[in-house]
């Protein structure tokens, strides 16, 4: 029965919620689902919590497209009905893109995410030829030592792909988003010598691990974005 009550919501985080943090996004979604009249299922135990998972934390100040949230409802609804109610209840800053029912026995959504894809633009970027050269030099490095919160780490293996679109004047990045191995777009900008640039960062998609055949094989997951 639980399989029928799990839904995957694809949404965009737009300008009105640009500076809403990860925990506040959970609270926003809980309020939105309540306003929509969709009864959230709760965990068991002494401190029951709504059963919902955001796929991956978004850096503060970033926008997103094709973001993912899994929710469990107490009663089965059609995906079309869930979407209709959410579209009516969503606050400014959240745009509903899709709703699908997914098997309840899939792994937790955050465990499925392997990488994040970003597009980053700025009017403060250097001329295209110079920025393209910086990208090439960065990709040629074997290691990129960085510090985050006082801890040293190597950024280079977290950059799975990086390119500069000279026509659209934006950087495209695919960064690892695994537990304990997450690349951040602002760190890539710093490694390119652009730490002071005012930039617009949009996470355009999330790449998933291939699911084991025994878990969710009935509904293959394709990459978003």
Short description:
This protein is of the alpha+beta class and 225 residues long. The chain folds into two domains: 106 residues, 2-Layer Sandwich (Alpha-Beta Plaits), CATH 3.30.70.580; 95 residues, Alpha-Beta Plaits (2-Layer Sandwich). 21% of the residues lie in helices and 32% in strands.
Q: What Rg is obtained from the alpha carbons, in whole angstroms?
A: 19 Å
Output the CATH class name of the largest domain: Alpha Beta
- Overall domain count: 2
Weakly predicted, low-confidence segments: 213-225
Beta strand count: 11
Characterize the largest beta sheet: strand count, sense, and whether it forms a barrel: 9 strands, mixed
State which percent range the strand residues make up: 25-35%
Give the topology.
Blueprint: E1 6-13, H1 22-35, E2 52-54, E3 63-72, H2 79-89, E4 94-101, H3 109-112, E5 113-121, H4 128-139, E6 145-148, E7 151-154, E8 159-165, E9 170-178, E10 181-182, H5 185-191, E11 200-208
Parallel strand pairs: 3-11
Antiparallel strand pairs: 1-3, 1-4, 2-3, 5-9, 5-11, 6-7, 8-9, 9-10
Output the keywords.
single chain, 225 residues, alpha+beta, Alpha-Beta Plaits, 2 domains, 9-stranded mixed β-sheet, two-stranded antiparallel sheet, elongated, disordered C terminus
Description:
- Mean pLDDT is 90; it is low at 213-225.
- A hairpin with a 2-residue loop joins strand 6 (145-148) and strand 7 (151-154).
- Helices cover 21% and strands 32% of the residues.
- The chain folds into two domains: 2-107, Pseudouridine synthase I, catalytic domain, N-terminal subdomain (Alpha-Beta Plaits), CATH 3.30.70; 113-207, Alpha-Beta Plaits, CATH 3.30.70.
- The strands form two sheets. Strands 1, 2, 3, 4, 5, 8, 9, 10 and 11 form a nine-stranded mixed beta sheet that branches. The protein has a two-stranded antiparallel sheet with strand order 6-7.
- The protein is an alpha+beta fold and 225 residues long.
- The protein contains five helices and eleven strands; from the N terminus they run E-H-E-E-H-E-H-E-H-E-E-E-E-E-H-E.
- The two termini are 31 Å apart.
């Amino acid at each position: 029965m639980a399989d029928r009550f799990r839904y995957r919501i694809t949404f965009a985080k737009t300008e009105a919620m640009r500076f809403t943090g990860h925990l506040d996004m959970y609270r926003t979604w809980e309020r939105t689902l309540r306003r929509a009249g969709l009864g959230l299922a709760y965990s068991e135990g002494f401190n029951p919590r709504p059963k919902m998972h955001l796929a991956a934390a978004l850096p503060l100040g970033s926008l997103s497209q094709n973001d993912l949230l899994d929710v469990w409802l107490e009663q089965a609804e059609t995906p079309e009905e869930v979407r209709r109610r959410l579209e009516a209840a969503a606050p400014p800053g959240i745009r509903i893109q899709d709703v699908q029912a997914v098997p309840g026995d899939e792994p937790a959504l955050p465990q499925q995410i392997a990488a994040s894809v970003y597009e980053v633009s700025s009017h403060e970027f250097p001329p295209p030829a110079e920025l393209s050269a910086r990208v090439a030099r960065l990709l040629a490095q074997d290691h990129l030592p960085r510090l985050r919160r006082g801890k040293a780490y190597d950024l280079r293996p977290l950059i799975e792909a990086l390119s500069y679109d000279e026509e659209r004047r934006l950087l495209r990045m695919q960064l690892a988003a695994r537990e304990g191995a997450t690349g951040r777009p602002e760190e890539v900008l710093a490694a390119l010598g652009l730490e002071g640039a005012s930039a617009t960062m949009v996470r355009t998609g999330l790449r998933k691990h291939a699911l084991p055949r025994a878990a969710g094989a009935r509904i293959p997951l394709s990459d978003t974005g």
